Amino acid sequence: MNIIINQVLQSYVDPLTESEYAALERSLLAEGCRDALVLWNDVLIDGHNRYAICRKHNIDFNTIQNSSFESLDDVMLWMIDNHLARRSVSDFQRGVLALRKKEIVAARSPAPAPADASDGEAAPKPAMSTREDVARAARLSSNQISQIEKIQKAATPELVEAVRSGTISINAAATVASLPQEEQVAAVAGGKKLLRQAAKEIREQRAATRPPREPKTPHVSQDTAETGNEPWAEAAAQAPGEVERLRGELAVLKQRNVQLQAENRELNQRIAALIDGS
Q1: Which of 85-94, 147-156, 210-219, 227-236 has the highest mean pLDDT?
Q2: Shortest CA distance to 57 belongs to which of 29, 33, 34, 30?
Q3: What is the average pLDDT score of the chain?
Q4: How far apart are CA 175 and CA 201, in angstroms?
Q5: For residues 33 and 60, is the Cβ–Cβ distance under 8 A?
């Protein structure tokens, strides 16, 4: 039997950990391959780990055909939905799969028709067209989907592997992904503790440079402002001075941020030196 492994389809299968692989291997050696592998023509679409172990130990297995697909996109969507329904799939992997589903659905969907000006109704949005749609499919929050998108765009392979394996959370990984690539690699090499520390320092720097919110000046009517009978009139008069004070505080915070960044670079250099010397 000529079974074809499609690398794109195989990438949809989250690799097993060492302990998971060992447990599956023991089960197959003791009980055989009880569940049939699923094929689309000659392409394997379900049972990649079982197939690899069966070939390794010459264990017999059965196959079944799923002939309901018309294209490779249909197979991809079927595989994605299968994995999204499994509780063992991590939050990060569910987010990645849901984003892939969005891409496939978008490529297959025709361009939406323009709204009919005569009835004033907007054209319906295509499926999986919003971040909220993706979040519902992945059973995650919209903010988590946004963070996973940041990781996909900016994270190094080392950082992606760290979040995939659970060494670092999605939230922290999205934060660390804002660092230059060499600093990401150094943080991952330092282990879980250093990754958490790096994420914490970045958040603190962002908080320090975030401009303070200017206090809202209550609306003062012309009559009240002229008579000065209300305390809001005095607050309105003092607003320019308050803005200047806040600007001064912002300048101090920006200077402090420059110092923190310099300290951060020095720490990363020391960490890299320790790693090289270990």
Answers
A1: 147-156
A2: 29
A3: 82
A4: 10
A5: yes
Q: What pTM value is reported for the model?
A: 0.66
Lowest mean pLDDT among 89-98, 185-194, 238-247: 238-247
- Take residue 180 and report the two structure tokens written for it: 């230059």
Q: Name every residue whose Cβ is closer than 8 Å to that of residue 10 and which is 6 or more positions away in sequence.
A: 48
* SS3 per residue for the chain: CCCECCHHHHCCCCCCCHHHHHHHHHHHHHHCCCCCEEEECCEEEECHHHHHHHHHHCCCCCEEECCCCCCHHHHHHHHHHHHHCCCCCCHHHHHHHHHHHHHHHHHHCCCCCCCECCCCECCCCCCCCCHHHHHHHHCCCHHHHHHHHHHHHHCCHHHHHHHHCCCCCHHHHHHHCCCCHHHHHHHHHCCHHHHHHHHHHHHHHHHHHCCCCCCCCCCCCHHHHHHCCCHHHHHHHHHHHHHHHHHHHHHHHHHHHHHHHHHHHHHHHHHHHHHHHC
* Pairwise CA distance, residues 187 & 196, whole Å: 9
Q: So what's the pLDDT on residue 196?
A: 87
pLDDT tens for 159-176 read 999 998 888 999 999 999
C-alpha to C-alpha distance for 191 and 172, rounded to whole angstroms: 13
